[in-house]
Amino acid sequence: MTLRVLAAMSGGVDSAVAAARAAEAGHEVTGVHLALSKNPRSYRTGARGCCTVEDSRDARRAADVIGIPFYVWDMAEEFDRDVVQDFVAEYAAGRTPNPCLRCNEKIKFEAVLDRAVALGFDAVCTGHHVRKADGRLVRSVDEGKDQSYVLGVLTREQLEHAMFPLGDCTKEEVRAEAARRGLAVADKPDSHDICFIADGDTAGFLKGRLGGAPGPIKDESGTVVGEHEGAHAFTVGQRKGLDLGGAPERRYVLSIEPVENTVTVGPRSSLRVGAIRGDRPVWSGRAAPAADEGPLACTVQLRAHGEVYGCTVRPDGAGLRIELDAPAAGVAPGQTAVFYDGAAVLGSATIGATEPAPSPAVSG
């Protein structure tokens, strides 16, 4: 069946090959590049870029080679509101957001998809390394490039209108195919880090938005062991950047209290998390667990490219209680927990709070 497909073209090799595959499959494909900044020069460029003027030109050239219409959509206002401002607000609240995940959720698969459907398109095609099977999101065959985690926030309805042509191949195969197709982006490096922080200095960016606010660094007993210039510069599990005056042991950020402007630190053993409260759950690969069906046994991933843990999930009020089979370290509120059945995504929830794991028994 021929579909009207809107191909989101970032200017990179993945989205270019995805658009080419959709066109080769016989679909009626239109390419679109998202202009996400009113001042593109403030965003990253070159090998470390994403969604810049340079990327727009690369996307247009790729569309010309593929032979599809191409447009640029101005999404700067939506991106600033739903991604950049959300990023700043989350840090101000003592949480650690994932802006790429939020961009996928709010821009590529909400604002863009809504507009695409309104214009009569049947699907949005992207270059994410992920598969769809039986309506569920499934990990890519390239485990190192798998992006199911950052798409785990998508709803079932959004997945119905999504097309992911690259999930059955590796990144090396994508680059080789791009070269065979004559796409100039075949050797273009992948983008890294946060696109709207031009110099990569997240702490400096947040200080510019939130200002400096010195406060105490305390240990678990409440003793002041140092001072910080702004709690927003820290995230749970962080070790670097702590000026503790030559403390005898390594200490890590355990928690951030924005109201009192306090950062609490402690040994690595205190980072062990045994249970998590999940807020705003989204279930795309199954129905939401019912309170009377018992705990759901599955696996959970707690950060992009992070370790996968066995767990049980049960409803808890409007949210979820996630109990880990083995302790996890450095779990930060504001990040996302994505649930899996094998390689298939079941759903996701925002990490609202954590509970420490019991201390390991000491044999005597």
Description:
This protein has 364 residues and is an alpha/beta fold. The chain folds into three domains: 4-187, HUPs (Rossmann fold, 3-Layer(aba) Sandwich); 212-266, Adenine nucleotide alpha hydrolases-like domains (SH3 type barrels, Roll); 270-356, Translation factors (Elongation Factor Tu (Ef-tu), domain 3, Beta Barrel). 24% of the residues lie in helices and 30% in strands. It has helices at residues 13-24, 53-66, 76-92, 99-118, 156-160, 171-180, 202-210, and strands at 4-8, 28-35, 70-74, 123-125, 130-133, 136-139, 162-163, 215-218, 224-228, 252-257, 262-266, 272-283, 296-301, 308-316, 319-329, 336-341, 344-356. It has a six-stranded antiparallel β-barrel. Strands 3-2-1-4-7 form a five-stranded parallel beta sheet, sandwiched between helices. Strands 9-8-11-10 form a four-stranded mixed beta sheet, with no helix packed on it. A hairpin with a 2-residue loop joins β14 and β15 (319-329). α1 (13-24) packs parallel to α2, α1 (13-24) crosses α6 and α3 (76-92) packs antiparallel against α4 (99-118).
Write the layout of secondary structure elements.
Layout: E1 4-8, H1 13-24, E2 28-35, H2 53-66, E3 70-74, H3 76-92, H4 99-118, E4 123-125, E5 130-133, E6 136-139, H5 156-160, E7 162-163, H6 171-180, H7 202-210, E8 215-218, E9 224-228, E10 252-257, E11 262-266, E12 272-283, E13 296-301, E14 308-316, E15 319-329, E16 336-341, E17 344-356
Parallel strand pairs: 1-2, 1-4, 2-3, 4-7, 8-11
Antiparallel strand pairs: 5-6, 8-9, 10-11, 12-15, 12-17, 13-14, 13-16, 14-15, 16-17
